[in-house]
Amino acid sequence: MTDTATDVFTELQAWLEQNWDPDLTVAEWWERLGLAGWSAPSLPENAYGRALPRADAVRVQQTIAENGALGAPGGLGLLLAAPTIATHGTQEQIDLYVRDIVTGQKAWCQLFSEPGAGSDLAGLNTKAIQDGEEWIVNGQKVWTSGGQVADLGMLIARTDVDVPKHQGITYFAMNMHQPGVDIRPLREITGHAMFNEVFLTDAVTHTDAVIGGLNNGWAVANTTLAFERAGLGAGGGSAAAGMATPGTVAGHLERRAGDFVSSGGGRRRGGGGPGGMLGGAGTLITELAKANGAIADPVIRQDLMRLHTLNEIAKYMNQRSRALRTAGQPDIPGGPNIAKLSMSHILRLSRETGLRIIGAYGTLHAYDDDARKVLDAATGNPFFGAVTGLALYSPGPSIYGGTDEVQHNIIGERVLGLPKEPNNDRVTPFKDLPKNG
User: Fold this and answer.
1) Which of 104, 332, 340, 423 has its CA 20 to 30 A from that of 150?
2) Does residue 10 sit in the same domain as residue 98?
3) Residue 83 burial (CB count, 10 A)
């Protein structure tokens, strides 16, 4: 650790001793945390951060949790919206939007994918038409994580159909609490509803909510996607986000901050991000294999070691990427894409290994709390549900955040220099292109 980093953590320790009070409301604590720069310390200083390298920023959040304090606001606001706005927004937009993110006052969702524009995101059809200082938005979005608790959305919409499709997109911040925004849950095969579809009918946003300039939304969206892939990829670690939900919808802001801290004071097992989930899954299925004797199967042992090895490689690659950025050098070419592909592969291997370990119990799954109690009583092992839940969830990461096929294409074309598939979508006006749906 550098002398500078040591000074940072000494300052953080002293700050926590002086400021953490479990009897504060969540809103009061997050305001202290956010305005002191500890909610998102990797953000630049003009965006309520401390310009720390990602590795140090993760350690900041771990230190907060280890001291028994409530962690930073979680969700897509801190993960995606804040760094995107810090990169492309004006100072006025940073003060308006990022302040409310780091203090947990507003929760965000991502309004990108559409039924006919998933892998081909630039083919989106949602339109925003200018009316004075307002933009009137009509269209449909899908796979919207956290839409049901969001105050604001990161919206990309078509603002010019007379230019090629990548050139006619604009990135907006949009109020989710208005007439014309209809949010409907999408129930998954796991029984959960992590995602939503959102119907926009004459919804309104404003000129001063344009992030990064008119018709420059594709560049801004790619910044968001880069943060998403880095955050979702294997080896990404966990920022140890707080257990309270930010924003005005969930109703947590006025509750006691100490009520959202685990009694042990440390981080929740597995952490708060995909990296923590992957490591937690490997530990769980290893312990199950030991308990039921499957660890004696040489194929099971081999796959458990493959999982361990893949997780370690992902961790070291992430550390290498952090070191390069800290040294001011270019990141690993295609690093976030490789990390996301690794996560998909690790989850598939976890699914297959876990199901082999628990055998016929893998055919049973509970889809709500009452059913889980019945299943746990019948099997005598509450961890079987975690294995089947992971198995049912495992196809998702190969789709969301850009499919595995998209990641392969990006690596092939942008990193390896392979020729693109022939098409004319970068020169033909969007209105003249065949539509996906």
Assistant:
1) 340
2) yes
3) 24
Look at the chain and report how many structural domains it folds into.
3
CA distance 326 to 50: 14
Structure tokens at 422: 């022939």
In a domain, residue 331? The reply is yes
Decide: helix, strand or coil at residue 262.
coil
CB–CB of 128/111 below 8 Å? no
Among 8, 150, 24, 141, which residue's Cα sits nearest to residue 81?
150
Alpha carbon 392 to its chain's center: 19
Residue-wise pLDDT for 245-259, tens only, equals 999 999 999 999 999
CATH code of the domain covering residue 205:
2.40.110.10
- pLDDT of 241 > 80? The answer is no
Instruction: Report DSSP letters for 12-74, one per residue.
Output: HHHHHHHH--TTSBHHHHHHHHHHTT-SSTTS-GGGTS----HHHHHHHHHHHHHTT------
120 falls within a domain: yes
Q: What is the mean pLDDT of the chain?
A: 89
- Same domain as 346, residue 299: yes
Structure tokens at 396: 């998702």
Q: Is the pLDDT of residue 378 over 60?
A: yes
pLDDT digits (tens, 9 = 90+) for 316-325: 888 888 788 7
Extract the tokens encoding 408.
Answer: 């392969």
Whether 11 and 52 map to the same domain: the answer is yes
Find the domain containing 97 and state its range.
3-105+228-257
If asked whether residues 95 and 238 sit together in one domain, one would say yes
Asked if residue 112 lies in contact with residue 434, where contact means CB atoms within 8 angstroms, the answer is no
Q: What is the pTM of this model?
A: 0.80
